[in-house]
Amino acid sequence: MLKRVFYSLLVLVGLLLLTVLGLDRWMSWKTAPYIYDELQDLPYRQVGVVLGTAKYYRKGVINQYYRYRIQGALNAYNSGKVNYLLLSGDNALQSYNEPMTMRKDLIAAGVDPADIVLDYAGFRTLDSIVRTRKVFDTNDFIIITQRFHCERALFIALHMGIQAQCYAVPSPKNMLTVRLREFGARFSALADLYIFKREPRISSRAPGYRRTAFFRPAGTYSHAASGAK
Question: Which tens digit of pLDDT belongs to each residue from 133-188?
């Protein structure tokens, strides 16, 4: 009896693992055509959405995921692939502000403050992607993050009918723990989309948001290669 229960549990665990792996691969396959690893191949869009993460680990060491995303945003902006950067991240605590931290570093690197818009309610990837359309009035944009994150963000975008592309910036070499967590994040995203049908936690605009920020007439951009297509 105990042996039968053990084998039944083993089969169930095996089926669950196969399901999770299958869904993971399906998400990667479905979004592959919309991901660009090389900047030169990236299509032009007015808006680049930078998905936030912590700048530092707990020990005060800089987070390489953060560093690569900031560099990717700079590369896309300076090459004229995007004209504006929407920085979307968590601002749940007064001492923790992902969008403002990104803004400071990008301005220090030469980005015009007028070309930066902050989304303080990007608590989850779903919030960041859906709010870009519902709150910031753009349905066709470039997501900037690591490839594994691109896949989940794009899957959400495709499901919502959002015409996004993704610029996949480099990932740190030692990312096993992050990749394992990603299995759970993808399973959760699928549940949010197909079962719970979740919406962003906050659907209102940030104070001071200018509706025309992303629609400045062509030819008026200040940074190099602004006319790139």
Answer: 999 999 999 999 999 999 999 999 999 999 999 999 999 988 888 989 999 999 99
Return the C-alpha torsion angle 38, 42, 48, 54, nearest 10.
-20
Spatial strand order of the sheet with 116-119 comes to 35-36, 165-169, 142-146, 47-51, 84-88, 116-119
Percent of the chain residues past pLDDT 70, beyond the cut:
88
**Which structural domain range is residue 56 located in?**
2-196
Which secondary structure element, helix H or strand E, spans residue 144, and what is its range?
Answer: strand 142-146
β-bridge partners, 56: 62
Number of domains composing the chain:
1
Give me 14's structure tokens.
């095996």
What's 144's domain CATH number? Answer: 3.40.50.620
